[in-house]
Amino acid sequence: MSTPRFNRRTLAFAHDTAMAAFAFTLALSLRMSNDFSTLPPGAVLSSLLLFTATCATVFWALGL
């Protein structure tokens, strides 16, 4: 039994988008040494959402 192409592609897209969000969070955590208190409230979440949406758009547009 094989997985249909559409489902495999959708799963890969979701995985890549989730990994981009994780990479952003990890990079910010390493950069800030886990001290997010110096950032304005909501800055991390809004930046994460913007970055993830941008990555998802680029991934979808380029067929990655």
Structure description:
This protein is mostly helical. It contains 2 helices and no strands. The protein has helices spanning 5-32, 43-62. Helix 1 (5-32) packs antiparallel against helix 2 (43-62). The longest helix has 28 residues, at 5-32. The model has no long low-confidence stretch (mean pLDDT 85).
Structure characteristics:
single chain; 64 residues; mainly alpha; 2 helices; 75% helix; elongated
Number of strands: 0
What is the number of helical segments per DSSP (H or I, 4+ residues)? 2
User: SSE order, as H and E?
Assistant: HH
Structural class: mainly alpha
Largest sheet: none
What's the layout of helices and strands?
Blueprint: H1 5-32, H2 43-62
Task: Briefly characterize the structure.
It contains two helices and no strands.
